[in-house]
Amino acid sequence: MASEKTLALLRRRLCDPSFVYSAFKSSPNGNYSKLKFLISNTITEACNNSVLLLGPRGCGKGAVVDLVLEDLKSELPEIISVARLNGLLHSDDNCAVKEIARQLCMENKLLFSKMASFDDNSQFMIDMLRECGLAHKMIIFVLEEFDLFTQGKQRLLYSLLDAMQTLTSHSVVIGISCRMDADQLLEKRVRSRFSHKKLLFTPLTTDDMQRLLEHLLYLPTDSSLPSDYLKEFNSNINNILSDNKFKEILDLLLAADNSISNIQRFLYQAISSMHFQTELLTLDDLKSAFSYHQRQPMLDKLQDASILELYILVCMNRLESREQDSYTFNSVMKEYKAIQDAYKTSDNYSKSVCQRAFEHLIERELISFANNRLRNLSVEYRPVRLLLSSQELYQSLKSNASCPAILQRLLNYETYR
Amino acid sequence: MAKEEGIPLSPGRKTRSSSFSLSSSLPQNHRTFFSHTHLELLHGHCHSEESISLDTLTSSLPGRKPQIHEILRLIGPLNSPMLPLLLYGGPSTGKTISVLQTFRYLNRPFVYAGCRTCYCPRILFNSVLRQLLIHEKNAGKGSSGARRCEKPSEFIDLLRISLIQVVNALRERNLKLGSEESDRGNMIYLIFDNVELLRLWDKSSTIVPLLLRLSEILKIPELGIIYISSSSPDAYYLCTGSIEPIPVYFPDYSLEDLHGIFMRNQSNPNLYSSFLSVVLKPFYRVTRRVDELSVAFHPLFEKYCDPLSDQCLVLDEAMKRRLFDNLQPHLASSLNDVFWVPSWASHQLKQEGEHRQKRFWKSIRKEASNELDFHMSMSVKYLLLSAFIAARNPATLDASLFDSSGGSNNPKRKRNLQTSLDKKDNMAEEILLKGPGSFPLERLLAIFQCITSVAESMVEDDHFENDFAIENENFRLTSDVLLQLSALCNANFLCKSGSCPLEGSTRYRCTIDEEMAVKVARSINFPLSSYLYRR
């Protein structure tokens, strides 16, 4: 029972981004504190502001904004209203202004008409800004995927930032983007109205990493679990975290991708293995979770290919090593027939069967058409190319138990004939 | 027709649903769990069906036990939130059926949308919203009517509203029922199938990131999302970075798994397993896909069982040896076939009871392949052949092949042709590589004119030999050629190719292969090979 509750608790924690990033709430130089300070200052000084949050994917920008807004709403309930836009959905100006109007109406319990035009909606937005300014309220605009708003004419950005220039409005525009040069994408007139404040999200240091892991994995002492189980679990986690092998695994994991979301997914996979068996999290769970991260899809696909498909791949490799720049299925068949004539293997199949195997390879994305222009021709005449390197092919042929020995020899061009 | 016991349809490709349906030899009262087809699984999730146990789940899907365990532990216990999953593997490896059966075992509400049947964003959005509406109704809450949307922003709004309503309805229902009925949990799961097709859509640059980031955009913890795809996760990496879902890999079936799959639902397991021991290994070298293997095995098994009078016999070694010898010659020809579809001729002959002779089996195949299965008028056949010739021959040869009167019987012409052919050695290589070329309309009509004038003159010679006049109007060839041309284009025998912007005339390509052209030529006694440029 206790392990089930633990499992549920840990899973809930890992799937909640606010909890994950709240590990860094308390650090004074962190982005959370800086953003909160900025917005609270803007509220108290009753002015306008804009800020950009930049950082790679999965480093917690959206979560930080959510945390700050949640805290501010609980501290100052009546003062803040929020309008959220996403670049993927609302990059069109009409759509964006309609969405802003709809969200402002919802927050302030006004009726929203779907038939309102673009002019109506933008006029409503400007009026709303003025009214809120006069009533000492604040509107916060959160623009996610900010770089997608900078495509086209940037009308929305200009109108937002321009409306902020008047004396009576109180608003903050927060832009979130994963492109580090998002502010370079702004037009001149928009950029001049934009305060060049940027909050950068840097990769975590090892101390931060340690803090994050402890924050995520230690069970809280005030939970409803039995105390001896609690102590056992926490001491077990302590042992794992200080183990050298775990540190090695963590280093390898972070060498590829050191964002927080990568750690989140890694821990999720490790913890979910508690579903079927053990009471405690073991190092083996972490090791197997790491091995899932190390999967190589190309080699897996090659293990799945049948013998005829491997023959075709080897023929294409030979053609490529002869530096034929473009070849079609017909040339591959010629090579295949030549090999069958020379070696008289038992794998001599007809053209239609080989063509079916060829189409399987295209479906699996081990080979692809070299250019998309000649789409009207049938499969036999379109130029193709290999999507794997000779190294990968060689490696997988070696590790394939049922592969005939002749294929490995054929990979080297010199031994033919 | 007197014999109306039903025309046997071609075995066709075995789809997931048909391989799970009853084979005809099982007695009717032996309905087991396996009788649920794919569609029933999808529609049955709304009603409380009898749920299945974990053992039934893993035994019904041989070879998929580790994957099912992985899915189960990643989805987690009841009411536990989850990170998005991506299930990937080759086609026909049992991804969709595993997920659907797993949800039947878990008995939790889910919404299924396949990107193959919902082929554009609007249909996908509407399908998801409609299924959520059904869940709301089943959970006891009345609802406002169906919602429709076109744009992604509307979809996200409506989806958020629907999901919150469904979750609330589920929560209330669970509170009311207490412990009487099984608790289906507060969570709802979205399953997107065939996600690799999304990349081929028009607006793929917004749709793909939108769907893959659905859980972040919605921020609803009671939602779980599962993606099923044939491509590996690295096909979904976006330029601006992406949050990866957790991958689960479905490898292809191994030899033992395939054996297990084919042995299910067999009326005579001994007989079938001895058949499989002969047949499975050679075919495994060619292809590993279940649907292709089952299509190939079906006629072979009938052939295998032919000498047996009583199908329920227990086999001994001598019998097995005999059956194997009987089957051996057909194995080789079957390995080299892609699939075999019985034509009308072979069906009728089968009715006459002559199908047991080995020789006839082969001759049925040859006959079926030598004749055209459908009817075309004479002029269309000539047009098709002239298109084929225009596509295969380089344009510069036309002058030597056809003179102004159209005949090519001149011996001096033949000598000229031979010399000009020898000069163009490189062209043969190119044609082999590049395939048939495109030709303008004028060239097609010119060749057509030449051929038909030859044909008319030949026919007139024939007429003089035979004394009676044939009333066939076809030989006049006065039909509207352009009308026939558009009919050929509609039937995809010709297709339009890109046209030169300077000239403005359209160019065409011929899409039939040599086999079919030979068949057409044979049906009108046209000497095709003398017109084709060959090395």
UniProtKB/TrEMBL annotation, chain A:
Major localisation: nucleus
Keyword ATP-binding: yes
Leader sequence segment: none
InterPro entries: ATPase_AAA_core, ORC4, ORC4_C, P-loop_NTPase
Limits of the ATPase AAA-type core domain: 51-197
Localization of this protein: Nucleus
One GO term describing the cellular component: nuclear origin of replication recognition complex
Taxonomic superkingdom: Eukaryota
GO MF terms, alphabetically ordered: ATP binding; ATP hydrolysis activity; DNA replication origin binding
Keyword DNA-binding assigned: yes
Protein keywords: ATP-binding, DNA replication, DNA-binding, Nucleotide-binding, Nucleus
GO biological process, alphabetically ordered: DNA replication initiation
Domain Origin recognition complex subunit 4 C-terminal, chain residue ranges per copy: 212-395
Family assignment from sequence similarity: Belongs to the ORC4 family.
Record's function text: Component of the origin recognition complex (ORC) that binds origins of replication. DNA-binding is ATP-dependent. The specific DNA sequences that define origins of replication have not been identified yet. ORC is required to assemble the pre-replication complex necessary to initiate DNA replication.
Protein name per UniProt: Origin of replication complex subunit 4
Source species: Platanthera zijinensis
Automatic annotation (TrEMBL), chain B:
Domain of life: Eukaryota
Domain (ORC5 lid) ranges: 272-324
InterPro entries in the cross-refs: AAA_16, ORC5, ORC5_C, ORC5_lid, P-loop_NTPase
Segments forming domain Origin recognition complex subunit 5 C-terminal: 376-532
Full protein name: Origin recognition complex subunit 5
Orc1-like AAA ATPase domain segment(s): 61-216
Keywords noted in UniProt: ATP-binding, DNA replication, Nucleotide-binding, Nucleus
Entry GO MF terms: DNA replication origin binding
GO cellular-component term (any): nuclear origin of replication recognition complex
Similarity remark: Belongs to the ORC5 family.
One Pfam family recorded for the sequence: ORC5_C
Keyword Transmembrane: no
Organism: Platanthera zijinensis
Tagged with keyword Isomerase: no
Stretches for region Disordered: 1-23
Any GO BP annotation: DNA replication initiation
Compartments where located: Nucleus
Lineage: Eukaryota, Viridiplantae, Streptophyta, Embryophyta, Tracheophyta
